[in-house]
Amino acid sequence: MAITAKQVAELRAKTGCGMMECKKALTETDGNVEEAIKVLRERGLATAAKKADRIAAEGIVDILREGDVAAMIEVNAETDFVAKNDLFLEFVKGCLRTILACRPADVEALKACKFDGTDVTVADALVEKIATIKENITIRRFLVAEGKMNTYIHGHGTTGVIVTFATDDATAEGAAFAEMSKNVALQVAAMNCEFVNRDAVPAARLEEEKGIIASQIKNDPKNASKPDAIIEKMAVGKLGKFFEQVCLADQAYVKDDSMNVAKYVESVAKEVGAPITLVNFYRYEKGEGLQKREENFAEEIASLIK
């Protein structure tokens, strides 16, 4: 009996299983959807759909670099235990290889790509991993960065950082650049800045901060008689502190606070006798902004017993 695309789609909608698995199950059951569901459940594959609404805020941030190109991804799971599972870790690496090979635009486009080294899509590979590991797993986000760079992963994938620079090939291959770029990546991981430099701060954010500072100045009784033009100039003058907090280039360099990060990069450029410019940084922190699962110990034990 020929299996139609409509039957496969119906079975996928009911089970959340991969297209190929659905087609196999339908073929084995002569197109009987209910029997196919039973087959998939017996194989443990249909469990993926049941797990889709579980909170997945653990997981890992990982990076794969190939020359002047690097991909960074965050893949979430329900527990830290699963995040250390070899099957999970290899799935994450496979996603990174797929990203570098296919350059998808977003997560949905990534899911439609053929998973690295296989004939199945990333979406189907994900469903299979959920069924095997028996936890909800989600591909949350990824990015691709290009340029002379260095990368850093903190802990077991808690935080990932990519920092890019503009310089020549010879300089980028030198030990001084490697040490400097690694130090800047460590700074990004530790200090969690928002923007690479002052030019990257949106005008609206700058106006908002200037307005807050101006209000603070006006609220000081000794400034009550000062005209608005003077207050604004004072506010602009105080923006330096704001830049030091949110801009990587303006932050005090953590290993030598006598200079900021931009001056540190300049000092290394002077040392090697070649221009080096800090271009951008990318930082992922595992689970940031995600709802965390909250269970007390007694409830966790009770759930395990059940």
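Second entry:
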Amino acid sequence: MKLVNFLQNKFHSMKAAIFMALLLIGIIPGVIIGGIFFRMYESRALDTDTVSMTNQTQLLSDQILSTGYLKNNEVDEINTQLKALGNIYSGRIIIIDDSLRVVRDTYDLSEGKTFVWENVILSLRGQRTSVYDRVSHCLIITVPIQKNDSSNSIEGVILLTKSTDNMEQSIAFYRDLLLYLSLVAIVVAFVLAIILSERYTKPLGKLSDDIRNSQALHDEVSVDDFSETEDISRNFNEVMQKMRDIDESRQEFVSNVSHELKTPLTSMKVLADSLNAMEDEATIDMYQDFMHDITQEIDRETKIINDLLSLVRMDKSGATLNISSVNINDMLEALLKRLGPIAEKQNVELVLESFRPVTAEIDEVKLSLGIMNLIENGIKYNNPGGYVHVTLNADHQYFYISVEDNGMGIPQDSIEHIFDRFYRVDKSHSREIGGTGLGLAITKNAIEMHKGQIKVHSEVGEGTTFDVRVPLNYIKEQS
């Protein structure tokens, strides 16, 4: 069983596949070419002999008619030619008249007898025939003895056989030569197959070893023997770089989460310790102030936890959105109504402008959370007397939501980072108004889960505009 598994593993390898392919490429063409060569050689030799024998027989036919040999076979001139022609072809010549009687047989076996054979009968009808007898190793042709006058009558048939021993010997010689050359070719092909299979698979083995021995994310592989291994190395290094980025992002995320969760706890501990240190000196007003601060820190801790839970739910349920047909106009009106008290407290005007009724296939809970974060940020990071202008429009494929404010604005060097988790443009102001640095990350996740896009345009001191584009019809990705 171990031997079977060993052989299966060996023949399953690329090296074995390349070896067998090269070996077969070296052997199969030689076998095919050899077979074609022998067939063509034999056919060519037989055709050449047939033409030569037919021409000689035709000349003999004319002389037989002119001498009346079919009536009198004692013509020395014809007999001499028959004997010479038989010696030339190492074969047998039979002269047959139109009654199928053998007039002359150079082997002196059939004279006076009736010779019935299909090809002879065909020649008496005017056809020339040839046949190769592989068993007897001879080529047999029949040629009609036909008058060259207006009657074109056929007086008899000449049957000529030729030994093909010389041709068979030549074929045997070439076959032995081909066998010898084939053995040499097989040995050469075998050696080349070993060398080339080793040469072509060695970079892959090296690449496999480098990947296996890569112990850390910062390790890179470089096997540039072939363009394919170079591509694999480059792609592997790119994947490792992405893993490094993910690992760094994970570490940064954990660090930020730890810091953000720890900060309110630290503040509460400081406040509690301060109260304990005051003992009897603390008044009721002081207790109330301290408890108010502790409550604010608890609310901040709760908001951070809720935002983190929202991000986790979005990360894990991207493929299982609760999609339904939703009236986007009603959804935005509900959001503005919910955020109205916050806007009034900040003295910020909320305006909704809908250009047409819009209905789309979305997960209302997740997308509402994302759009609400944009509107809420427009309110919180605004100036008293400012505005947040929300517009809704659509075409045949997408609906568009724009959230524009005239608040603080975002510096250009911060725009590309505002969707990063825990990133704050103004940390002190964000902490003052209760920002966690997760709102825009949640918004981007929610929009991208709907196969949408979000863009931002901002000028410091002039305001910010977020443009959101979401497909009207949700198309689930094929797994």
